[in-house]
Every structure is written in C-alpha cells, then in structure tokens.
Design brief:
Elements (H helix, E strand, L loop, with lengths): L8 E3 L5 E4 L10 E4 L7 E8 L11 E6 L18 E5 L4 E4 L4 E3 L10 E7 L4 E6 L2 E8 L10 E6 L5 E4 L1
Antiparallel strand pairs: 1-2, 2-13, 3-12, 4-9, 4-13, 5-6, 5-12, 6-7, 8-11, 9-10, 10-11
C-alpha cells in the first residue's frame, strides 16, 4: 500500500517488490510498508536480498501483521515496540511482538530465496509462520487485538538493500 510505505522504501511498478533504499550501511529499523489486503487468511513473502551486512547484523527484515491505526511507516526504533503487530524476525528467526499473545518457536535467520508464509485465523486469534513450505511450529496464539482493528501484511526493514516480494 503506497500510502503506508516508508520514505526509504522503493516499490516496484506492480507494488509487489519492496526494497529499502537510502538507509546507509547502518542497522536502523526506520522504515516499513503495509500490504493492501485486510485480514488475509494467508500470504507469502519471498526474500530477494537480505541487505548490507553491518557489524554482523544481516537479514534485518521483519514479516508479520499490523493494524493501520498503530502503524508508522517512518521513524526511529522498532515498530514492534510501539505495539503495532506480530512479527517473525529475520536476523535470528524469533517471534517478536509487544501487542500481546503467546509466542511459540523459533527458526534460523532468513536467507535470500526463502519464502515465508503467514497464516492468520482471526476467529481463533492465531498467526502461524511457515518457512519454505515447512511448518516449524512458529506461531502466536491468543493475540490481543482488543480494538478489533483489521490486520494487514507488514514488512519492516533495517538493512539497506534488503528486498522482498509479495507472492
């Protein structure tokens, strides 16, 4: 959604590829983008490039779900700490959220070519993450979406040059 796209992200003409630009070589979580479809039951993101490696920090990409009401496409700091959603963290494969719910599981860091599928069951208040077609038992359950906001696919970037494709 170009109206919910950070100023340091370039979107392809078909809006399916998002790349962090103008971020320098630092590890700064300062830009993000939302997808357009609310409450998707499933969506896939392919990692095209994990971005510039800086002091051992790479795969600075988070994939998950967020509400438009709390989402900030530009700004300092991790958006997850602002309580806007539920994410799989590409640097080390952990689940991160300050929005409530119980997290289970972790996986390895993201690599170029990985496909991350996010499955959302609004009725059961559960978000599952599937990595390269394999269910690794990564999920949030009992998510606390108390305001009952619609949730949208969300990608947050730290590394310059990191790039993903909505499939």
């Amino acid at each position: 959604d170009s109206s919910f796209c950070g100023s340091k992200i370039s979107l392809s003409d078909d809006k399916r590829i998002a790349t962090k630009i103008n971020g320098g070589n630092s590890w700064v979580w300062d830009t993000a983008v939302l997808g357009e479809t609310p409450n998707p039951t499933s969506f896939k993101i392919k990692i095209l490039n994990i971005g510039v490696v800086d002091s051992g920090h790479d795969a600075g990409i988070m994939i998950g779900l967020s509400s438009k009401q709390k989402f900030q496409p530009n700004g300092p700091g991790n958006y997850i700490t602002a309580g806007c959603g539920w994410f799989l963290y590409g640097h080390n494969g952990t689940l991160l959220s300050s929005s409530g719910g119980n997290a289970s599981g972790n996986t390895r860091k993201f690599n170029a070519g990985d496909v991350i599928e996010v499955k959302y069951n609004k009725g059961n208040k559960k978000i599952d993450f599937i990595v390269n077609g394999v269910d690794k038992n990564l999920f949030f359950e009992n998510i606390a979406n108390n305001e009952n906001f619609d949730l949208f696919p969300a990608i947050e970037f730290a590394n310059n040059g990191a790039s993903v494709q909505f499939e």
